[in-house]
Specification:
Elements (H helix, E strand, L loop, with lengths): L1 H10 L32 H9 L17 H10 L10 E5 L2 E5 L25 E8 L4 E4 L2 E4 L12 E8 L6 E8 L5 E3 L5 E8 L4 E9 L12 E3 L4 E4 L1
Length: 240
């Protein structure tokens, strides 16, 4: 025991030197002193703040516009008059809607699905593809290369399937889209998924984004399935 204590004391006599680091004074979080307008880009939130003229309380429906950078987000949280600990609000279901009574300052975000006019897709040029794969037999080999194995034939009861969506922006400009997808009727979502989901994506020029959701059928039968749809502000950009 005494020998082990001596060895431990000897080991503590040597300590490795810390890695050499360069420290620089910063005005913003992880940002140097040089003026960088992109740290806090213009948005509707700052417009509302200017129009408020220092009036209190200051609340803006465009507070989410400041999520473009960490600096802008911290500035927005410091500017808006939202409480650190909100009081318990009253919420009652009224038909298909909700009646809210706020007990402290709050900002409400409302999202709803609206009917899109039928017809030809817009000129956005968004491409949408989908494929269905068995979760337990997803891959195969072709000419020495591993590729996805699409499910063939009717979907089987009690087997988990994965629907893989690929959204592509083939244009030379950045596009913001919303992808609405849902599992087939009569199916049950698995893998932490939900029956219906809308996902927003900002696609850079010539960029693709992949989304997945999983489900299985607990009972046999013939069920309807509405394919995924990509929308923008206006008509549908793509549908499948």
């Amino acid at each position: 025991q005494r020998l082990a204590q001596q060895q431990q004391q000897q080991q503590q006599l040597f300590r490795a030197a810390d890695t050499t680091q360069e420290w620089a004074e910063t005005t913003w979080f992880h940002a140097h002193l040089e003026a960088r307008p992109e740290l806090v880009p213009p948005s509707r939130l700052w417009r509302d703040a200017c129009e408020a003229g220092g009036a209190s309380p200051f609340l803006s429906a465009y507070v989410a516009d400041a999520a473009q950078s960490f600096t802008a987000a911290m500035g927005a949280l410091a500017l808006v008059d939202l409480p650190f600990a909100a009081r318990a609000h009253d919420m009652d279901a009224v038909g298909t809607g909700v009646h809210l009574v706020f007990r402290s300052h709050a900002i409400v975000c409302l999202m709803e699905m609206a009917e899109v006019a039928a017809g030809a897709p817009s000129e956005a040029g968004i491409l949408l593809g989908s494929s269905y794969l068995r979760a337990d037999d997803r891959w195969t080999w072709e000419e020495g290369e591993r590729v996805e194995k699409c499910a063939a034939g009717p979907l089987l009861v009690g087997v988990a399937y994965v629907c893989r969506l690929v959204v592509t922006n083939p244009t030379s400009r950045r596009q913001r889209v919303a992808v609405l997808h849902q599992i087939p009727a009569g199916a049950v979502a698995v893998g932490g998924g939900v029956a219906t989901r809308s996902v927003r994506r900002a696609l850079a020029p010539f960029e693709s984004a992949a989304l997945e959701f999983a489900f299985y059928f607990p009972h046999a039968g013939e069920y309807a399935h509405y394919g995924p749809t990509v929308t923008q502000a206006g008509p549908a950009a793509a549908g499948r």
